[in-house]
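Budget justification note: compute hours in this period were largely spent on complex prediction jobs such as the one shown. Inputs:
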Amino acid sequence: MGKKVSTAAWLLVAVALCLVPHVADRFVTYLSMRVMMLGIFALGYNLLLGRTGLLSFGHGAFYAAGAYGLGLFSLHVSPHPLLGIAVGVAAAALVALAVGFLSVRSSEVYFSMLTLAFGMMVFALVWNLREVTGGDDGLIGIARAPIRLGPARIPIAREGQYYYLVLSLFALAVWVAARVRASPFGLVLAGIRENPTRTEFAGIPVRSYRLAVFVLSGMFAGLSGALEVLLESGARPSMAHWTHSAEPILVSLLGGLHTLTGPLVGSLLFVAMREIIMRFTENWMLAFGVVLLVIILGFRGGVVGSLAEAMRRRQAARRAP
Amino acid sequence: MQSIVHVVLAGLSAGMFIWLVASGLTLIFGVLGVLNFAHGSFYMLGAYVSFTLVKVLAPHFYLALLFGPLAVCLAGLVVERFFLRPVYRLELPYQLLLTFAFVLIFDNVVKLVWGGGALAPPAGLGPLRGSVSILGRNFPVYSLFVIAVGPLVALALWAVLERTWIGRIVRAASSDREMASALGVRVPALFTGVFVFGTWLGGVGGALAVPYVGLLTPGMGESIIIEAFIVAVIGGLGSLKGAFVGALVIGILSAFGTRFFPTFDMFLTFILMAAVLLVRPRGLFGAAR
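Corresponding output:
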């Protein structure tokens, strides 16, 4: 695929996304927002899993940190949405820094175990600190106040208006993820994935790089969590639960681990799949698990990876005499 | 004073369940090199299957204790033989994710078969009902029985691994898989055997828990696997001695937490885990590599 085709495809998607609230009904607009939020979550997550080769089971905790950070700030300090989002992302970064500091030092197996354990610690905290977090009720009644920038007031109360805030932050997230992947920093991360020992011998402080990308992916998760609170006007403790941490894993695997577009395509598939499956059965986890099994045993490249592989094979066949 | 003795006893009995799960987890990791996230689910399955068997076989709790874990072994056999075996050659994340998929599947299956609510086992199972007076306060006999089972299992494991022909093969395969294979050990069959045995340990833990926990919930597997992970971090992943010591420490610490800081009972164990990690990243008995 040429560079021109790829640019055209990106532009087409961007235009389509801008038009959604005008041409589609409310439900589709709502689902598009869910896809973009999950996309932000998975993009950040995949910098860790796909790029650096680290499997975290604790990102629900950072998602919840973003959500509760925004929720508490807007309930007790100021309802300004942008400030709230900034506070949420900062809270997620802090929690990710603490968990990451203790986890990235260890080998891969320990890392997965530790992120799961610390993630569930955050869940237990959110669940038990009733006075602050509302326990199992969560935080409720968080309104979407207008964004005040100097004299200007941008209303986001209606879903069609809020959509554009989500879209802008989604675009920002995609841009940051693309920049990170293409940067020297991103190349070092891929080096760590392929061979940490060699990367270490090349004079690169592997642990600091791992911690940096861990915190970065935690911030993506926090942004996604903060956006969800504004959309649903509440935060739930289940955001921190490890079944929620598993969502970006499945999304990344669905779309494909080693590409930028993989997690985005995966988010679209995931939301569509969940909508369809939940309509027929309540056993969403079972379906989730079976899909995971099928991908691991059969389609490890995900949708984007498998398509790319098929395309490469066709080209190779054409080139061969 | 007497209340502290009782808290320690309660912690010891809780620690024994963690030990039964953590020992299977450790054994499987040590030999197969796979961290089995679904191990807590086997514990949960053991509890639920035994619960049903207790109801069917009415007074014979010991039959349920025998057959419940065997049914779980069957699940373990299927998981290892048909799903885990093809992914040994893949990168680590895929192996972890595969066992994780089974956590989701088993959780949902339990909810489908037994319902999502809590189940109360019939009171007064087996001949071990009632309580004895220790320092002027009553303590359930069954908990004392559980406290006795843990060290017995540890002793049996040690004897088998260190003193028998099978144990020597298992140790050989865990220290160098290729060499053992070259010397004529059928490694794939050994892996299946060790996995099934580890599953059995988890299933026994679950079956023993039926009269102990009071209520069976679909979340019981996940809480014990997290405790087993904490134990593995503290004791050192792959070390059975570490798992035993770690399980006792975690059991007693959470018992103290529940008694004295009810809001933060889980928190104490996490603080201990973080402290151990900072001082000894590979755990108390973990091999330095």
